[in-house]
Each structure stands twice: as C-alpha cells, then as structure tokens.
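<instruction>
Derive structure tokens from the sequence
<entry> Chain with its tokenised backbone below:
===
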Amino acid sequence: MQLVELGVTNFRSLAAVPGIPIHKQTILTGHNDCGKTATLDALAFLLGERNIEDSDISRFAVGDRERSALPVIGDDEEPRAVTVEARFELSRSEAELLQTTSPIRVRRRYVEGEGTYLEWQARVPERLELRNLQALKAQDLRALATDAGLKLRDDQSNVKASWLELLETHSATTTQVTDWVEAPAQLKDALPQLLYFKGDSAESPEAVVRGILTAKLREYTLREETRQKITDLEAEFSERLKEDAALLRKLVEERCALDEFNLEPQIQFKPAIGRVSLAASARGQHPVPLTAAGAGRSRRITLALWEASQQLLADATDGLDGGGVIIVYDEPDTHLDYDHQRRIMEMIKASASSSHSTVIVATHSLNLIDGVDIQDIVHLNSRDGRAYVQSLGNSDTDEHTRRFLSNMAASLGFRNSVLLHEKCFVAVEGATEYAALPALFKLAFGYPIQSAGIALWACGGNDGALNFAKFLKEHKRTVVFMVDADSPRDKQKEFSYDRLLKQGFAEDDCLFIGAPNELEDVFSDNQWADTMNEQWPRSDEKQWTSHDVAVLRTEGKFSKKLHGLLYQDSVQPPRSKEDMVVALAQRLRAPSDVPDSLVKVFKSAVKIASGAGQPHYWVDDE
C-alpha cells in the first residue's frame, strides 16, 4: 500500500488539515510549532504505532484567535474525537486480497471515553443492520432474516453459519452506498509498517535497533510459510481457551443473573523485539554499555544505524501483502554538520528509491530541502494557532511556484534568494518568454523549472539582458542567455559575439530559440491552427487551417504577421504576442507536444545548471 494523501482533524495544532500530499520522498518544512511533528505522530496513530492521549486532542474556541484550553466535557456535550484519514494506492495483489479497487480511503478515530476505531470507506448495504453481520448472534441473525422474509433452504441446518450465509447473499442484492465501516482484518494486516526515527537526543540507539528489527520481524511474519504457522498457532490456542472461556461465561451468567453472556476471545500473535542491549568499545578498551557512553558516540551510532537500515529494508520482498514500509525522520539533521546532513540526504534518497518504501522527513535544513524536487516539499504554516498546508501540484503555474517559495522562505526566516537555490540564471528577452517558457518546461520534464536550479529573469530587451547578465557574471554567478535565434543578426549592436566577448561572455553562453528566428516559429502549423480556432475564431465563422499559418512563414517576422492576421480576421483577437504564445502553451497536453528544438534548449540549460551553483571562495585580489 502506497500512502499518497493524509488528513488530520483535531490533533494538537492540526485542527482541520486535509489533503497533505505524500510522495515517495516528502520533505515537511515550516517554522517551529507549526505541526510537523504532530503530522508524523498522527501518521503513527493511523498505522497503530502510538496511542492518543487526552492532551493530544485540540479544541479551538469559536471566534477566538488563540487555541483555547481543553474544556471539561459536560453531560450535554459531544465527546471530542481525533481523526486521521489517508488515501492509499494498492498493488494488484493487495486489491485482490481486499476485494476492492485502488485507491482506498482509511481512517483511524479516537473518541474520548469510547476508544479507537479503524475504518475504511467501502460499498456497503444502505440498511445499517445488514453491515456487520459477523458480529451478530445466531438468534439476532434469525430475527433479522425473518423480518426480511427470508427462509433457510431445506439443505441448510438451523445454525449461525446458515443464517449468516443467507443474510450475506441477501445483503449483496440490496441498495449499496459508500460509507465508513469497520476495517476488515485483511486491511489491518496490509497497512504499511512504520519506522519512526527522531533526530533529537531522546532517540537512543537501542530504540533505533528495536524499530528496525521489529520492522524486519514483521516482514518475516508476512511470508506465506511463516503466516501459516502463526495462523495454526492462533487456532491451536483458541481451541485450548474454549473451555476456559466457557467457564468464565457460565460464572458471569450465574453471578449476574443473565440469560446469556457472549465471550469470544480473539487470539493474535504479533512478534516484537522486547529489549535490546548494546555495548561498544574503542580499540584497546573494554566494552561499555551505550547507556553509559557519551552523547557524541550514541549520536554517531544512531546515524550509522539509520544508514544500515536502508540496506536491510532494500532486501524486503516486493509485493508482500503487508503494504511496504513508511520511514519517518523527525529533524534528522539535529546537531549534525553539513557533511553528515548530506549523508542523510543520500540515505533518504536511497530509501525512497525502493518500490515498497515511502520516506517522510520533517526538517529545517536547507541541505535537505535543496536536495529534492520542489513538488516534494510540503510546507506547514499556521494562522491564529491553526496549521494549514502549502504545496505544489502538477497543475500549479510558475506564479504559484514563485509564491510558494517566497512564503516558505519567509516562514523559515530566510531571504527569498537563499531558498530559490538558483544554480544558473537564464536571462530571457521579455514577457512572452518569461510567461510561456516555465509552463513549457514543466510539461516537457514533469517538474518546475526552479527544481532544475534555474532562475528565469525577464530583462525587458536584449540590451537590458546583457547589462543584467554582466552584473551577475561579475559576482561569480553562472549566467546564460535564452534569446531568439535572430538576435545576433537583427540586433548586432547588443549581441554581436565581439561585444559579448568584451563583456566577459562567449558564444557558448547563448541558448538560441527559434526555427529559424524566434520562439513562435518552433510550434507547428497544426498547433497554431488548433489554438486559433479555440481562442480566436474567425469573424466569417470558417475554421482556421494549418495552411493559413504555413503561408505566413515564407519571409519576414512570422509572429508579427500571425498577430496581424488574427487582429484583422478574428472576432476577438489576442492583445499581444505574449497572449498568443501563452494560450498555445496552455493548449498543449503531453510532453511530446513540446517542440523538440525547444526541449533541446531546455536540456542544455539543465546541463549547465547541474554543473553550476557550487560555493565560490573569493580570493583577496577579486
């Protein structure tokens, strides 16, 4: 089972936080006390790895800007509840095991004074009394069947199993609805296991070892041959307890004057690592228990154990019904230098690369934030004490990306330029390129242009681009130009190679767009005709054709003639060339729709950025 979305209600600062996106590798950022650790603890509750305390339940007063104190529950007040809900993608074998389709929604609720419930959203009978037939007694099943006008067949004996079969067959033919119901045992076994690593000093090496080995132990119990042995043991001990349970049942009925007292023990073996003893010794010294060793040694051993865990987990068998593993790190960079932080980032990437694992990291570290795709960052912020989520999706524009980065930088206390982690500045001529190129890049590669370390700047013309680039070059930044192919020919004053050379640039610093002249040229006649018919229909109600576009490419400035044609013959022409290109870019749907010549230019920019952005040490005479 692959966790893809998480939602939390009424848990600490997470009053109502739905739709937290979870990727194979997710970085949770945000200022202190914004809900990062609460999110991880909520996930642990969902997977059955922690309990809810009354102090975990949050209550926000209506109209109050601050979180109110936990109130005393009165007789007329509804009990408070914590709900953690998730969406999981299923493998084929998991879908077959659960007899459902992917994805599924699962939630675990804690209701104060009642207890904890694990539920899932499923198709169930509309009538409530037909939903949990397994829990009913034989006499209740018989009464329910009689009420529905059902009778046993002649070959069926008058026992619970017969009435249950009859009602289950009947319930399948009744009106079905989608609702939250108790999760079946198969779902409980299929939930992912959790490895929760804390970066603070409270995380002892013993706890790390116990967590890793418990995860491996559970993996072994999910293997078919082992699971069968455990099932046999559970059946054996259930049989042995029958007489004991019967005696208890009889005594309670006698002492309490009850007609019937139902007592059915459920036996379930869950192997776990009880205690781990660790000792270490330096060369020539006696072993010393880690509980008596210094904090520095324990921290180094903990980091080494984290690194070792990825190899153990990589050996797990894919396709197990156990649902894989979710590895959680809470501030793993605490008290670590930059070199060790980079080691952690490599470890996280290696763990996330496994097909059966998901990694979630809560951190403030720029090293960790800088090491992932922007779309893998989930930023938690708070307003009036309530947490909320900011993240980027596939449909978000370049403007959304810039806003997201700016908000995240402000929340973490950094200047925007620090968090942009730009490796390469790409100077473009004007508004058309600045508006259209980010969308085209994202469509071609599947991630924002900022994720490649590229900062795009509109410089208002070739001369402005050159002056801006010269300033950055003097400050030891990597700079290239992405300009129309006709710039050296038509604007030789600004972009002759002699002039570039004098300003410290070379021909290799230019990435030229156009076939043959400018950005508008690279799109096909069919792409333009399709966009024109959709956005700017002809005034004579005819259809634009690819031939109408092709004839404009013979000589002169194609974009100028195309805009003139639309201005003359369209009902509502575009206001500018910028509008034309942006509208066409928004019509494209598949990566293959992005012209090859433009993808080639993008790849060149990515290659330059990948080799740039390294720290520069200024010498005394610079």
